[in-house]
Amino acid sequence: MNRRALLSGLAAQAALLPGAARALGSSPHPAPRPDGLWRRAVPELGELLRAADLGGQTSLAVIDLRSGLALESVAGGTPLPPASVAKAATALYGLRVLGPEHRYTTRLLATGPIRAGRLDGDLILAGSGDPSLDTAALAGLADRLRAAGVSEVAGALRVQGSALPEIRSIDPGQPDHLGYSPAIAGLNLNFNRVYFEWKRQGSDYAITMDARTGALRPQVRVSSMSVQPRNLPIYTYEQRGAADHWTVARDALGAEGGRWLPVRNPAAYAADVFRTLCGAQGIRVTLGPPLAVLPDTATLIASHDSETLPGLLRGMLKYSTNVTAECIGLTASTALGARPDSLQASGAQMAAWHSAQLMGAGPIRFADHSGLGDRSRISSLDMARLLSTHGTRTALTPLLKPYLPRDASGARMASAPAQVVAKTGTLNFVSGLAGYITPPSGRALAFAIFSADIDRRAALSRAERERPEGGRAWARRARRLQNDLVLRWSRLYGA
């Protein structure tokens, strides 16, 4: 067989092999793609904003952390309400002013000696503003009081919570019954909420109001509930002295259920629960009036320490707990010597502190530390810059919650194009997201996205603020925009 015949035979055999036609029609090295073709697969910014159809205003910015340059911005200098994204600013404020080793201490003190099981004086429960104090912690203090040999208190149980100002509601504009807008004080318990539980029994209802934590469910006397034969309003509230009196519409209850309701007098609530826990230990004690100042002669019996500040902040950012944000913000402002008497005054202190860290910052206003109030204002560019200040990423990244983008079908992406940690924020017709993007290239980015239809929000009545018409659909579109922007920036600047 000559050479020509051999080559012809091999070619004929190759043509019979699977995939041979594809192999013959392709190059062993892919042809170079036109410059920038991959960028054209990333949705245009204007296209994403038009698709969201949010109305109102949207402010967005993304910054390269290494250079400090803004890579992309739309209305970046427009101040908008940050909602709970403000908690990221509060976290940084607390860490820088108080330090990561800061703890809150709740103390149990006596104004007299203990003789033969009797405390000859008052028993004092003194708070320092701990936002995480719960019924289990108070039960531990009652255990230690019993271990100290106390079975009777000759004086009275008195509470002292002047470490922070007493604030009746984080946002008075919210409906009374919403558990995320309770009171704030120097002595807080269970995020200043009481659990209302009901169960139908014949033609009536069995009702409990308790301070539950885990298996502990002490009944509460300073908060009461009455079922009324009506349809609306679902709840009414009245404060009588130190007690909270609620009514609920019978038609709204159904067979059984439960929900958290806010507490408006945290010191009285803590005293009520602690007295019950002491009773469970066989310790007899009556309630006395609160103390404004601790007596110099008071001696320590026991104390309870909170987690260090990073642990408190991690929980705050994960669950967006308003009480934690307000207590930490107030504590930091107090540590700076401000002694604020309101959330507005403390928020102004925090805004001034952040403005001093940012050269050439636009107007920054914080009405509180949680973002629950809608009068706070910060631009996306200043929020991204705030996240870009020296050492901020190192401090906040371990505390922020991972953000997993969704694909076109709405499912969480199993392999996202970048690692993202962020803080979300949601109010009626207000939505925000801010945090850090770290693609495989290691090029770290800080970003912030704020959207708000302020006129639509302002038109809501107080009663409509729990579930306004159109609110959920608007929030879904805002979240979708945030998702698509994070994916855009991950792909566009991650190479």
From TrEMBL:
Q: Does the keyword Transferase apply?
A: no
Gene Ontology MF annotations:
serine-type carboxypeptidase activity
Assigned keywords, A-Z: Carboxypeptidase, Hydrolase, Protease, Signal
Q: Where is the signal peptide?
A: 1-23
Question: What are the BP-aspect GO terms?
Answer: peptidoglycan metabolic process; proteolysis
Q: Which Pfam families match?
A: Peptidase_S13 (PF02113)
Q: Quote the InterPro entries the UniProt record gives.
A: Beta-lactam/transpept-like, Peptidase_S13
Keyword set includes NAD: no
Q: What family is this? A: Belongs to the peptidase S13 family.
Name of this chain's protein: Putative D-alanyl-D-alanine carboxypeptidase/endopeptidase
